[in-house]
Amino acid sequence: MGRGQTASNAAVYKKILVSYSYVAVWIFLSFTVIVYNKYILDGKMYNWPFPISLTMIHMGFCSFIAFFLVRVFKLVEPLNMTRELFISSVVPIGALYSLSLWLSNSAYIYLSVSFIQMLKALMPVAVYSTGVIAKKDAFNSKTMTNMVAISVGVAIAAYGEARFNLFGVMLQLGAVVVEAIRLVMIQILLTSKGITLNPISTLYYVAPCCFVFLSIPWMVVEYPVLMATSSFKVDFFVFGMNSLAAFALNLAVFLLVGKTSALTMNVAGVVKDWLLIAFSWSVIMDRVTPINLMGYAVAFIGVCFYNHAKLQALKAKELQKQQQSTAVDEEFPGEHWNVQADDAVGEKSKDA
Fold first, then answer.
1. Domain residue limits at 269
2. Cα separation, 76 vs 343, whole angstroms
3. Which of 128, 146, 157, 330 has the most other CB atoms within 10 Å of its CB?
4. What are the start and end residues of every segment in region (Disordered) (predicted)?
């Protein structure tokens, strides 16, 4: 009995350790990509203020790698994607994703890393509001009160921002809204049809769409400027490492959500935001005011309550499933055993 308990505890500790390892890798890569993008785009650092070009480099790199992983190395099986499904589902999601990346990367030119992370705290508000409007989520007065608290906290943080730039704020808020619409559209256009995409298959289908959509504003906005300056010359080491970090982040998201849950990533995101705020203040020397911190603390508490409520809802849903399964076992024990046996045979056939 003692040995069995020890083995069980060891398995639990190992699972916890592996989960924390995935969290740590995701935080590191997300942290790296954000700071790296800020370094490239900021006028006081690398001074390459071309967010569309940077995003196109990312999408081109990810398209290239994803193609080789899917078609050459066959690490991931391509979906049975019809032309109609691609045009009706993948193309709109690609358009929204390209716009979201364009706006969010543009914001780094005008705003500090710390303030951008504070504005990103509005993501649950945007996702929930969009879900209610699209009738994917039911309206709940308690949840809405929580959303209002988050919004008030971000507003306080914005009021205390020492380097406030209205255009930069509008860019970041636009990125938040577009990203929220994209996430809801994924549920409507893909998830509801039983289609799930991991990061590699997502990049395989979506990244080329993003590249094409971004090329349209790029030809009008940035291409003439790049041709008129020496900035058209690409530093392959700087942009190659930046693109590699962005691709690795997508894989880390897959591992984190696949091995833990999306809720774990949300909680880890809160930790990452505080680390970025501290880094922005201590290393990049961005000014963080007490009002900034007070406002973000209010938003942070709201986000924590939101994640807690989601966790309780998931636990209740899981408990309900277990109770339904137990009721079936008690009412139809023989039939349920036969179904399990058939499933086991099917799995063995797949293995063979």
1. 11-303
2. 24
3. 157
4. 325-352
Only one residue has tokens 């938003």, namely: 299
CA angle at residue 124 from 123 to 129, to 5 degrees? 100
What is the tally of structural domains in the chain?
1
- CB-neighbour burial class of residue 14 (10 A; exposed 0-12, middle 13-18, buried 19+): exposed
Residues in Cβ contact with 206 at an 8 Å cutoff, skipping those fewer than 6 apart: 90, 93, 94, 97, 197
Residues 6+ apart with CB under 8 A from 256: 22, 23, 25, 26, 264, 265, 268
Residue 321 covered by a domain: no
Distance in Å from the first CA to the final CA of the chain:
36
Classify residue 5 by burial, with Cβ atoms within 10 Å: 0-12, 13-18, 19+: exposed
Q: What is the pLDDT along the chain (352 residues), one digit of tens a residue?
A: 555 566 566 666 677 777 788 888 889 999 999 999 999 999 888 989 999 999 999 999 999 999 999 989 888 887 888 899 899 989 999 999 999 999 999 999 999 999 999 999 999 999 999 999 998 888 888 889 999 999 999 999 999 998 899 999 999 999 999 999 998 998 888 877 777 777 788 889 999 999 999 999 999 999 998 888 765 567 889 999 999 999 998 788 767 766 666 667 777 888 888 889 999 888 888 889 999 999 999 998 998 888 888 878 877 877 777 777 666 555 555 444 343 434 433 433 344 3
Q: Is residue 2 part of a domain?
A: no
- C-alpha closest to that of 286 among 115, 142, 157, 129: 115
Residue for token pair 């900034």: 292
- Tell me how far apart the alpha carbons of residues 97 and 286 are, in angstroms, rounded to a whole number: 29
E strands, the chain, are: none
DSSP, res 288: -
Domain-located, residue 190: yes
Place of tokens 């408990």: 319
